[in-house]
Structures are given as structure tokens and as C-alpha cells.
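Incident review: delayed structure delivery

Summary: a single-chain prediction request sat in the queue longer than the usual turnaround. Root cause was a stuck worker, restarted by the on-call engineer. No data loss occurred. The affected request and its eventual output are reproduced below so the record is complete for anyone auditing the incident later.

Affected input:
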Amino acid sequence: MHYGKDVLAGGPRRRAVPEVPAEPGLVVEDPASGFCGAVIRLEKGNVVLEDRHGRQRLFPMRPAAFLFEGKPATLVAPAALEPARPARSASGSLRVDGLRARQARGSRIWVEGVHDAELVERVWGHDLRVEGVVVEPLHGVDDLAGMLAEFAPGPGRKVGVLVDHLVPGSKESRLVERITDPHVMVTGHPYVDIWEAVKPAALGIPAWPGVPRGQDWKQGVCAELGWGEPADGWRRVLAKVSTFRDIEAPLLSAVEQLIDFVTVDQD
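Output delivered after worker restart:
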């Protein structure tokens, strides 16, 4: 006689939590604290994680204690842990292998033009996809106050602005000194154009040439160096940038500040 389904068999079986080898560079999250970082090493049943700021924390390797690609996972010791250093991105941060871009945040980083956006992408693109940050070119900051009013910054909707030639007394400094919204950070670099933030050594030139006041800077540079039109010159400049080491320190500092500003206290 058929009695149907065994009523004592219980409910549906839970899916087994996968075991993931704790290889160096593997990025996981501790859901209890929200700490997200890459595996640095194992220590007697614990794992040391390092986040993008270089902060390290020790966590017990308990079953189902971590999130990997957003799902529960159990970290286990690899069969053979190689003493290789974790891979680094172009910005020097820990590279996330098999990266799936995070859903875009409400916050934004604004830059003055397309060249600025392309250079930021070349160096920090990996970090921006990990963090879910969108970079948008403004085509100038003459109406920055109006654009901010239209965007309406607020909690979870911050704006970081990268400005060229941000030095005392410049037109740019006068435009931004009135921006006092706590959800907006304006920072920048001292160079006339983003091109100049690329180290001359990376381009095989002794120095950026001086361009007389009143002359278009890019046209003057290309004429002096024999680079043709500015579009040709920019392709030459961008092609020579591969890591943060090709970029001058003021730009590195400015962009890192903006990424930190728009990603802190957002979740």
C-alpha cells in the first residue's frame, strides 16, 4: 500500500555551504563586522584579511563564517599554499580575481573632462568597480554650483569633484571656495591639465615643455614635442600609463581622497 510522502522526513534539505580554498588574494567578507578584504595568510585555524586601505584583521575560519561573491562560504586551507605575493591592481590595491562590478552607488566622482575620466579609469578602474563608484566628466567646472544644486547631494548621495589647476588664486580655486556642502568634497591637483600629472619619465621626455600664457596648453605641448594634434598627443600619453607609479603624487592623493570620501558610510 502506498502511504505517500514520509511525514517524518522533515522539510526541504538545506543546501550545503561550499568550501573555498583560502588562497592569497581571495576576497571575502565577514558578515558580522562588514569587514571585506583579501586573504593574506593563515594562522592556526584563523585567516588574516587585508582591506583596500591596508588594514588587516584576524578571523576564525568557522563553518559558513564568510561571504564569497555574496554567498555564505567556509574557508579551508589550500592543499598547497604558495608563498606568492597577492596580485596588485594598477592603483596598487589588492586585485580581485574574477571581479563582478558592484552595483553603482548613489554617490559620484566628477572630473573636468573626458581625458581626466580616462586617466582615472586607467589607474583606478579596478578599485572603482569593486566599490561601485561611477566617474562622470563635467566638461568644465564653471557651473559647478548649479550642477551640484541639480544633483542634490545628501547621505548616500555624495559627490567628489576632481579639479585641474587647483592652486591659490586660480579661477578654479575661486569657483570652488564657496562649496560648503558636507556631502561634497572638492579636491584637485596643481597641474594646468591632467596630462601634466603623468610623470615625464613615463613618456620618455625630460620635462613637460613650458607653454606661454594665453596659448592653448595642449596645442603648445604637442607642437613642442612633435606629437601632432592634441587627440594624437593624448593617445600617446594614455598609452604610457600602466600603474600608479606613472602618476605624480598630488593626483594620486587627490583621487584616493575622493574614493574614500564617496565610499565611507554608504551602505
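Verification: The chain is about 25% helix and 20% strand.
Action items: add queue-age alerting; document worker restart procedure.
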